[in-house]
Write a structure and sequence with these properties.
397 residues; Growth Hormone, Chain: A; mainly alpha
Length: 397
């Protein structure tokens, strides 16, 4: 297994480093944005609005970013995304110093646009390898999140009071510093620009008519949405309701992120060995355990175990869903197909994140957790409705 990873092409390695740096910034935001929003927002229910709008911006950026990559290549778009992220995090820090909620939202939205381009790191890696190695390439890129799980929470926690009179501002300035290293990974990226003289490929309707594409969208979209839904509300629950403190919150999120990405050492091999169906079932079972532990109590360890299992389930579902989407598009079709796919996936994520803060204030933590049973059920219904014979027949379309 280690030999297989070491033999990955340079593009996959660069995408893995870029993913780790991007996720480090995202982790800092997940940990601190809701809490910073609670200080700046005119009403408590608006505390998660900056983070939620960040996911909306990710959704809005995915299709334009994909089309720009199809026209100009991935490298310039990836570098532009890093520039936007650097600007955005500086704006967020400045907004906290000034106490300006509107400016903080602006920075959060810009950061979401940047993360919209970073979502294509995994596709860039998958495009660089053969069909049989696509699950391994996707899971290898997600390993970059393991670095993020170690670095992001440390910056988020240790830089909270770095700027006198402006709690959390230092964490966002620290996130800006992380972005400088992303240039090193992306500057040497060697991906040939697309051949714009080629035919445009099949229409999008041809992909929506395939069971593989539909299942990949449902698994990746709803799996990611449930993770975002609970993760957005968790800092508010831990700090503002259970009064466990900023350090406990950082540790819960840190180990949640470790659980999201550490399985990527072997997820790609599991997909290749056992197939997508069993990986989806396993991801669904883990999400079921999340509900059990999240409802069992309000101590640190209840949150810790629930969020850890949530990270594991997300990894299995997201890698599997991405693999299904990535393997059916030809090179000339990837710009449109991957862009539309991520538009739909992050529309689900944005809706989930937007509703998390409101529902948490209206129905509480228990109601929030129980509402996750609906998308979990939809994933299982979709899986049962998709026969293995269809997936096998569409593998080489």
């Amino acid at each position: 297994m280690l030999k297989s990873y070491l033999s990955m092409p340079p593009t996959v390695w660069r995408m893995t480093v870029a993913q780790g740096l991007s996720m480090s910034v995202m982790n800092i935001n997940i940990i601190n944005t809701g809490l910073a929003g609670a200080l700046l927002a005119p009403a408590l229910w608006m505390a998660t609005l900056p983070l939620s709008l960040q996911f909306v911006a990710v959704m809005m950026a995915t299709l334009p970013a994909s089309l720009l990559m199809a026209r100009f290549g991935r490298r310039p778009v990836f570098i532009a995304g890093v520039c936007i992220a650097l600007t955005a995090t500086l704006i967020q820090g400045l907004a906290l110093i000034r106490g300006d909620f509107g400016l903080f939202i602006t920075g959060s939205v810009l950061l979401g646009l940047s993360h919209g381009t970073a979502q294509f790191y995994r596709y860039a890696a998958a495009d660089a390898v053969a069909i049989a190695d696509k699950p391994k390439a996707v899971s290898f890129v997600l390993l970059g999140g393991l670095f993020a799980a170690l670095v992001g929470p440390e910056i988020a926690y240790r830089f909270v009071g770095a700027v006198d009179g402006a709690p959390y501002a230092g964490a966002f300035f620290g996130a800006a510093g992380v972005q400088f290293f992303a240039f090193l990974a992306l500057a040497g990226l060697d991906i040939p620009p697309p051949d714009r003289r080629a035919a445009s490929g099949r229409p999008l309707s041809a992909f929506f008519s395939t069971a593989t594409f539909r299942l990949g969208l449902v698994v990746a979209g709803l799996g990611y949405a449930m993770m975002s839904f609970l993760m957005t509300a968790t800092p508010l629950q831990i700090v503002n309701v259970s009064h466990l403190g900023a350090e406990e919150n950082a540790r819960v999120i840190q180990w949640h992120v470790i659980a999201m990405f550490a399985p990527s050492f072997f997820t790609g091999f599991l997909v290749a060995r056992f197939g997508v169906r069993w990986m989806i079932v396993l991801g669904g079972l883990l999400y079921g355990l999340v509900v059990v532990f999240a409802l069992a109590g309000v101590s640190f360890w209840h949150y810790f175990i629930a969020l850890f299992l949530l990270g594991l389930g997300w990894n299995f579902l997201f890698v599997t869903g991405t693999t299904l989407i990535a393997r059916i598009a030809k090179p000339v079709e990837r710009g449109r197909v991957q862009g539309v796919s991520d538009l739909i996936i992050f529309a689900c994520v944005a809706i989930a994140s937007l509703s998390a803060g409101v529902l948490h204030s209206m129905i509480g933590w228990d109601g929030l957790v129980l509402s996750c049973l609906l998308p979990m059920g939809l994933i299982m219904v979709m899986l049962l409705a998709t026969p293995q014979s269809r997936l096998d027949a569409e593998k080489d379309l």
